[in-house]
Amino acid sequence: MTEQTSTARTVLVTGGNRGIGRAIAEAFVAAGDNVVVTSRSGGDGPDGAHTVRADVTDSASVDAAFKEIEAQFGPVEVLVANAGVTKDALLVRMKEADFQDVIDTNLTGAFRVVQRATKGFMRLKRGRVVFISSVVGYTGAPGQVNYASSKAGLVGMARAITRELGSRGVTANVVAPGYIDTAMTQELPEEVKENYRSMIPVNRFGHASEVAAAVTYLVSEGAAYVSGAIIPVDGGLGVGH
Ligand code: NDP
Question: Does the keyword Oxidoreductase apply (predicted)?
């Protein structure tokens, strides 16, 4: 764990043990913040980050994780709601349970963590929230009615929080990645990946570190006047939407 300094913030990244969340956590560790990542599996985050086990579908588990973090580092000042899952199927075949499970992790899970974090924001009189959405939240994608709905919902959540808590020193923004090279996209068949690549104006998948760069900007001092915004990190895939 990095030494706690007077300028270090307490940063929580949900799902920070791998993929995009891990790259985001690495960026905050490099900046000298006190970084905590959650995972369900208990898999560790990057070197220099502290890991707590938490399942965002379970409010008691989220509350226990926050208590553990607060006891060690004080209130969370920066929350990155990144944990997410997919359960793709075409609409006619999608099971209601698979719709609900994806909403429960990606959208209600974000609600659970941001609601719990807000207690600390009120004490600190400031807070920064970044929701990791997806280009699919505004372009849509076949087979992803559940996922697209959950990711679009995060935009409404960030904007409602902006209006509700903007005067209390809290900003809430959205980063919407396109296709990023992580386990989630590595599972795709090669021809599907090639098809996606051909639709991306910069003609490549993104790096998780490029998503992290947008997140660190949104929680920087320079972004204090940015709230309710969406930053696409998608190589231009979503332009026009
Ligand atoms: P990964 O599948 O690599 O990682 C997902 C993370 O979420 C893991 O750390 C996982 O933890 C965690 N997680 C899943 N369910 C829960 C839960 N119930 N409670 C707590 N943690 C949970 O995904 P990516 O890194 O690719 O994606 C990260 C985010 O970025 C997601 O929200 C995803 O929708 C979004 N995104 C990804 C894109 C991509 O191209 N990869 C594109 C656009 C958006 P555990 O290890 O414990 O399972």
Answer: yes
- Judge whether 179 counts as a catalytic residue: no
With a cut of 90, say whether residue 4 has pLDDT above it: no
Contact, 227 vs 240, CB < 8 A? no
CA of 43 to the centre of ligand 1 (A): 13
Q: Where are the domains of the chain?
A: 10-227
The secondary structure of residue 180, as a DSSP letter, is B
Q: Which two tokens stand for residue 99?
A: 């719709």
How much is the pTM? 0.96
190 three-class SS: helix
| Minimum mean pLDDT range among 67-81, 156-170, 185-199 | 185-199
Distance 204 CA to ligand 1 centre (A): 21
pLDDT at 182: 87
